[in-house]
Amino acid sequence: MAKHHVNTTINGDQTEFLCDTEQTLLDCLRDELGLTGSKEGCSSGDCGACSVTVDGRLVCSCLVLGIEADGAEIGTIEGIAEDDDLHPLQKHFLKEAALQCGICTPGFIVAAKSLLEHNPDPTETEMRFWLAGNLCRCTGYDKIIKAVTSAAAEMRGE
Amino acid sequence: MTQTQFTAPTTVRSAVRCLAEGGKNPKVLAGGTDLLVQLRAGRVKPTTIVDLKKIPELKVIKTEKGGFRIGAAVAGAELNAHKAVKKAWPGLVEGLDLIGSTQIQGRASLGGNLCNGSPAADSVPALIAAAAACKIAGPKGVRHAKVESIVTGPGKTSLKKGEFIVSFFLPKRAKRSGDAYLRLIPRTEMDIAVVGAGVSLTVDAKGVCTDARVSLGAVAPKPLLVKAGAKALIGTTVDDDALEALAAAASAACNPIDDKRGTIEYRTKVAGVLAKRAALIALDRAKGK
Amino acid sequence: MGKEEKQFDELSPNVQANGYRVVGTRPVRPDGIEKVTGKANFGADCELPGMLTGVVVRSPHAHAKILSIDTTRAMKLKGVKAVVTSADFPEIGPKQRGAGEAPVSFRDMSRNVMARDKALYDGHTVAAVAATTPAIAEKAASLIEVKYKVLPYVLDAREAMKSKAPVLHKDVFTKGVDPRPKKASNVTQRFEFGMGDIDAGFAEADVIVDHDFTAQCVHQGYIEPHACVANTTQDGMATVWCSTQGQFMVRNYCATVCGMDISKVRVLPAEIGGGFGGKTVVYLEPLAIVLSQKAGKPVKVVMNREDVFRATGPTSGGHAYCRIGAKKDGTLVAGELTMEYEAGAFAGSPVHLGCMTGFAPYVIPNSKSVGFDVVVNRPKAAAYRAPGAPVAAFAVESALDLLAKKLNMDPIALREKNAATEGTKAAYGPKFQKIGYVETLEAAKNHPHYSAPLGPNQGRGVASGFWFNIGGESSAAVHVNEDGTVEVVTANPDIGGSRASMGIMAAEVLGIDVSRVKPLITDTASSAYSALTGGSRVTFAVGQMVCVACDKVIVQLRERAAKIWDVEVDDVEWVAGSAVNRKSGKGETLSLAEIANVAGKTGGPISGQSSSDVQGAGPGFGTHICDVEVDPETGRSTVIRYTAIQDVGTAIHPSYVEGQLQGGAAQGIGWALNEEYIYDANGCLENGGFLDYRMPVASDLPMIDTVVVEVPNPNHRFGVRGVGEVPIVPPLAAVANAVSAAADVRMADLPISPPRLLAAIDGK
C-alpha cells in the first residue's frame, strides 16, 4: 500500500504530509514536518511530553496515528505564542522559573492552555490532577503550579 | 515489507466487511490508547487497522428506554461532559475518568477499555455493577451480551472473529439509586489499578437496600461480579455488619496474583476495604447526598 | 500556596549586605524563549541531510556468554548501510583515568558500550545497525542472530557476596582487603573511612541504637531519552551532536572507546532534557560514530524509554547497617556504618562516597564507615545526584530518629547538639571551613512547619544531609562586542539554569545590565577544556572563571580608557560599568559601550579568558521537614507538607536555587515511596516504562516550601556553594521518619509502597 496522503490543519495552517499507517502523529510532526517542539519521552502515553490538541481536545500525539490527523485541526506548542507575543502561560513560566531543563515545558504549556480553556479558575488540586499526565523530573511541580495560577489570573483579567 | 492497511468506514456494516477482508490480524481502533502502545512495543502486528470513530452509532450518547445508549468509541472526556449520564451513573463516569491522564481521557473509550481484556480496567467494575449490556456487531449480524461475559481472561474476550462492540446500554435507573467506583493505586494518578471496586445499589424510602451489584477489578484473571457481595447488602440498611459481610465476601471472591503492582495478600485485603468504601459512597448518592 | 509568601523580588540579607546589584535578583533566563516555544534543540531534534537511523540490539538475558553473532541476514536487507559489533571496537587494556565524579575504567566502559564475550544484564548492547528508515533499521536489528549460553544471574548485593553466587568477572579480586583474595568474586573493592576507636566509643555510650536498612536502585528519570547524531568524514573527523552533561567527556570517552585521537572528535552539546548525573557517561555516541564511519553517512541513534530503563545506569541500591551510640544528654560518641552497594555489571558504585558522607554533618569522635562495591547483573550504575549519599543518609538519619525517640529528645535538638561547624574535622579527612549546617537546623526549628499541628494518621519526619560539592577544571571566555554587549562563552551544558547565573555574575562584575550579557554554551572545538556539568560545580567553578575572565576584560577596558584619556592605567577606576578618570579631577567617564565602540582603534578586540582547576568548593548541608498522612487500611502514604532548607552560600538566581531544592526533594520522595526496579524470574526488567516505574506526578506532591540559607563560601567571588545535589540527600529519611511516626512502625526498607506499609502495620 502506498503512503497515506494526509490533509490537515496545524496551528491554523493548511498542511499536507505523507505517512505510513504505523507512524504516530508525533512521528509525523517531528520527522515529516520538522515540528520538533513536541517531544518523545516514552511512546506510551505516560509522560505527556508529546501533548497536542486534536480538534480542541488534549491528547498524547504518540497515541494518535498520523493518518487520524486527516481533516482534523491540530494544535501544537509551535502555535501557542500569538505571533510576536508570548501567551500568558509562556510569560509566566519564564517569569516564575517554571522550567529547568525545559524538555517537559512544551507539553505542560499545551496541557495548561487546554486546562484554562476548560476551567478558567482551577483550584490547586484541579490543576495538579489535570496536569498529572505531564511528568517533570526537574522542578517538583511547585513553580509550574504557581506559573499556571498566575497566568490564569492574568487571563481572567485580574 | 508489507505495510499495515488502514481504513475508516462510516457504517457498522462496512466496518464488519473491512474486518472480514482485513487479512490475518485485523484490529479495530477507537482511542488507540492500548493499541498504539502495543503496536509500538511490537506486541501486536495488525494486517489492517479499522478506525471506528467515523461511524456515528459508535460516537453517540442518547437516551433509550429510560436508560442510556453510549457508543463504544465515545472518549472519556466526552462522556465526562455529558451531564445526564454523569448524574445517573457518577460511579461509572468516575471509573472511565480515572483511566490515565487528561490526555488519555481525550481518547480512551469504554469499548477499548473493556475489549483490551485487562482484569484491572477501570471502567469495567462500574459497568458490571450497573448491569450494563453490549451491542455487538459481526459477520453473523448483531447480538447483545452482558458486560460481565465479555472478558474471559487476561487479554482475552468472548468476541468472535470479526466482531466488535458497537455500543453500551445502561438500564433505566431506579429511584434512590447510587453507584461508585474506587481503586487503589500507589500514586494519585497514572497507575493501573491494584484493586478496583464498583458498587451500585438501590434503597427504599426507609433506607433498606433493595437491589445491589458488586464488582471487583484487578483481583482475578477477569473482572468479577461478586454475587455474595450483593447478598450481603440486600435487605440491610448497609450498616457496619452488612459492610463487614460485604468486605468478607469481596475478599473471598479474590483470586489474584503476585505481580509488579501488588501481592495476593494485599489485593485480597484491600478488595474488602474498597468494597466497603465504595458501598458507602453509593449509599450516600442513593440517599441524595 | 506557600505558608508565608516572601515578596517575589525581595533581596536576601546577604545580598543586601553585599550591595549586589544583579546577584540575588530573578531576571528571565536568557535561553527561556526557545524553551517555552518549542524551538530549543534537544538531542533528538537534530536532522542532517542523508541521515540514517541507528538501532541497538540488546541482550534479552541477564547473564550469558555470547557465543556468536551472525549479521549476514541483516546486512542483506535493502536499506541497511552498516552493522557494528564488538569486532568494530578496539580491545582496551586495564587503564584507569580520573573523570567526572568517579575514577573511570575505560576497559569497563567500552565493554558496557558494547558487550564483548559476555552479556551482563538484560539490555546490554551486543550490536547496532544503521539503515535508511527507522522501520528498516528495526527490521534489520531483528535479523541479527545472536547465540547465547544463558548463565545463572544475581541481582542483590548481599546475595552476590555469598560464596556460591554466580561470578560476573573472572578477573575481579577484591581491592582494599589484605591479604588479596585468591578467588575471584563479585566484590570489587572494600572501602573504609573513620576516626578514633569505635569499640571504645560504644563502650562509653549510655544508649545505643542500631538497624539494618535497604534501598532499591532507582533511575535518574530524565524525561529526555539518550539521543545523538554522529557525522564522520573521510579525513577521520567525527562530529557528534548529543544530549550530554559534558561535551569534553563525550569527546574523551568516544575517542578512547573508538580508538581515535581526541582532536578527531568534535562534540556539540544539544540542550539537555534532564541528566541528574545519568548523562555523565556515553552509551550511544561511540556506536553512532562507528556506524557513521562504516556507512559514510550521518547516523542518528535515539533510545526508547524501555532501553533507557534496561540499559542505562541507575544509581546503586543496597544495604546499610547503622549503629549509633550516645550519652544520655544526646552527645554522640560512636557511629558505625557498613554498606553493600550494587554497582551493576561493572565496578564503580558510589559506596565510598556514601561512607564519606553519612556521618559528615556530625561531630562524632569515633566512627567507622565500611563499604563494599559489589557487581550484579544490572545495568552499570551511573551517577545520580549526590551519588552514594542518599542511601547512607537514609540509614544514619533514620538511626538518629530512633536515637532521638529513645532519648526522648527533639530530633532537631539532637542534631544541633552534635552539629559539625567551622573547624570540625570530617571523618573522611578535611577540616570544614565556614559551613552553614547549624543555620539550617535553626531555620528548621523556627519554621512554622515544625510546630504546625498534626491530625490523625499523620506523622512528621526530619532529616539532614551533606554533599561535598566540587570545583575542578573549568574555563570561560568573555568577549566584548562592538556595541558594548558581552558574550560569555562556557562549555558546560545548562541543566538547571546555569546560563542565567553566568549572565548574572558577568553583569555584576562588569557593572552592566544583565540584558546586555549573552551567555553561550559552545562545543569542544571552540572552548578550552572544562570538566563536565556535575558535582554541583558549574555555578561555583565555571562561575568563578567567568568572574576572573571579566576581571581581565576590565583591565583591558581600563587600559583603553587610559589610552583615550592619555593617563596611566592606575589612574582609571572601573565603577558601575564605566571607566572613571581619577587623574583629571573632573571625573569623566567612559561606559563599557563607549569603549567597545572604538575598540578597533584603541588596540583591537577586547576579550578575556580564564582556565583553572578551581579549588575551594563549599560543602552544602540541608535539613528537610516532611509531613505524611497514612491510610492504615490500605498502606497508602500521602506527603501533605514539605519544607526543604539548605545553605547555598549565595543564591545567584534565587528562583533556580529554589528549583534545585524542590526538584531534589521530589526525586527523594519518589525514591522513598514508589520507585524501584522490578525483575522477573529470568532477571529481566519488568517495569521499563513510566507506567510501572512510578515517579511522582503533579497530584502526588504538595507545594514544596524552601528556605534558602546563605552562609557565603569564602572561596568564591560571590560566596557560591554548589546547590544541586544536597537536596536529594535528606528526603529518604525525612519521608521514612514521617511515615514511621504516622503509622507507628519503623519503615527501614525502601520504597515504602502500599503493600509493604500495610504488611508492616498489620504485623505490629
Can you give a write-up of this model?
The complex is a heterotrimer of chains A (158), B (289) and C (764). Chain A is α+β, with helices and mostly antiparallel strands and 158 residues long. Chain A has 2 domains: 4-79, Ubiquitin-like (UB roll), CATH 3.10.20; 88-155, DNA polymerase, domain 1 (Orthogonal Bundle). Chain A has 5 helices and 5 strands, in the order E-E-H-E-E-E-H-H-H-H. Chain A has helices at residues 25-32, 88-95, 105-118, 124-130, 142-155, and strands at 4-10, 13-19, 51-54, 57-60, 73-75. In chain A, strands 2-1-5-3-4 form a 5-stranded mixed β-sheet, with helices on both faces. Chain A is globular. The N and C termini of chain A lie far apart (55 Å). The mean pLDDT of chain A is 97. Chain B is α+β, with helices and mostly antiparallel strands and 289 residues long. Chain B folds into 3 domains: 5-51, Uridine Diphospho-n-acetylenolpyruvylglucosamine Reductase, domain 2 (2-Layer Sandwich), CATH 3.30.43; 56-170, Uridine Diphospho-n-acetylenolpyruvylglucosamine Reductase, domain 3 (2-Layer Sandwich); 193-286, Enolase-like, domain 1, CATH 3.30.390. Chain B has 11 helices and 14 strands. With 764 residues, chain C is α+β, with helices and mostly antiparallel strands. Among the domains of chain C are: 433-469 and 618-764, Aldehyde oxidase/xanthine dehydrogenase, molybdopterin binding domain (Aldehyde Oxidoreductase, domain 4, 2-Layer Sandwich), CATH 3.30.365.10; 473-610, 2-Layer Sandwich (Aldehyde Oxidoreductase, domain 4), CATH 3.30.365. Chain C is 28% helix and 25% strand. Chain C has 22 helices and 28 strands. A 7-stranded mixed β-sheet of chain C has the order 3-7-1-14-11-12-13. Chain C is globular, with a radius of gyration of 27 Å. Chains in contact: A-B, A-C, B-C. At the A-C interface, helix 2, helix 3, helix 4 and helix 5 of A face helix 2 and helix 20 of C.
